């Protein structure tokens, strides 16, 4: 069963998934395999390897699978211990986890009251999450973020540069609509 995640109170939390006594979430199974391949007990693995509470490792292996950055940490541990197949599994689990988050968070609208406003005037902000492939798309996204930050600054030269670069993009988009 795929673990579903929700945005709640600004934090991503998971909903409890039901697994039979004989089955585990793939991330829990991979963590257990890594620990056993390293010849560690839960206590040793928690304290010596992950520097966390034993109860957290026990929970990861049984009821609440590791997710997010913990999957990347486990991938590093696997690679450091010559467990390349487990390294690849943790990386794939992380990618799948990120895709699930992106599906839920593709567009988020935040509405808040304008600061210092005496009337009920509200501002709405929208955030988008994109999937980028390769260094070229990542570089383009970084440059775009930089230009947007220039638009928000008071520096007239940076703002003019950003407007000059973005103007053709805006015009081409408008002509398509």
Q: How would you summarize what this structure contains?
A:
This protein is of the alpha+beta class and 177 residues long.
Number of helices: 7
Determine the mean pLDDT.
75
Main pleated-sheet profile = 2 strands, antiparallel
User: Could you say which structural class the secondary elements and strand pairing correspond to?
Assistant: alpha+beta
Q: Please identify, by name, the CATH architecture of the largest domain.
A: Orthogonal Bundle
Order of helices and strands: EEHHHHHEEHH
Strand order of the largest sheet: 1-2
Shape: elongated
Low-pLDDT segments:
1-21
Distance between the termini: 41 Å
The radius of gyration is: 22 Å
* Amount of helix: 55-70%
- What number of domains? 2
Task: Give the percentage of residues in beta strands.
Answer: 5-15%
Tell me the CATH topology of the largest domain. 434 Repressor (Amino-terminal Domain)
Which CATH top level class of the largest domain fits? Mainly Alpha
Number of strands: 4
What topology emerges from the helices and strands here?
Elements: E1 5-8, E2 11-14, H1 26-37, H2 42-50, H3 54-62, H4 69-80, H5 84-104, E3 107-113, E4 122-128, H6 134-152, H7 156-176
Antiparallel strand pairs: 1-2, 3-4
Overview of the structural elements:
The protein is an alpha+beta fold and 177 residues long. The protein is 58% helix and 12% strand. The chain has 2 domains: 5-104, 434 Repressor (Amino-terminal Domain) (Orthogonal Bundle); 132-177, no CATH class. It contains 7 helices and 4 strands, in the order ββαααααββαα.
């Amino acid at each position: 069963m795929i673990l579903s995640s929700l945005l709640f109170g600004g934090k991503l939390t998971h909903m409890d998934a039901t697994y039979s006594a004989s089955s585990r979430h793939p991330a829990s199974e991979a963590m257990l395999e890594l620990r056993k391949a390293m010849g560690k007990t839960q206590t040793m693995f928690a304290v010596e390897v992950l520097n966390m509470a034993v109860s957290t490792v026990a929970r990861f292996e049984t009821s609440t699978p590791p997710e997010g950055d913990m999957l990347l940490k486990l991938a590093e541990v696997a690679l450091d211990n010559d467990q390349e197949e487990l390294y690849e599994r943790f990386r794939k689990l992380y990618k799948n986890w990120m895709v699930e988050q992106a599906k839920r968070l593709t567009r988020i609208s935040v509405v808040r009251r304008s600061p210092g406003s005496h009337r009920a005037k509200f501002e709405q902000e929208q955030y988008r999450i994109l999937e980028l492939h390769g260094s070229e798309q990542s570089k383009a996204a970084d440059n775009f973020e930089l230009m947007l930050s220039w638009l928000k600054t008071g520096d007239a030269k940076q703002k003019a540069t950003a407007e000059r670069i973005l103007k053709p993009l805006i015009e081409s988009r408008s002509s398509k609509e």
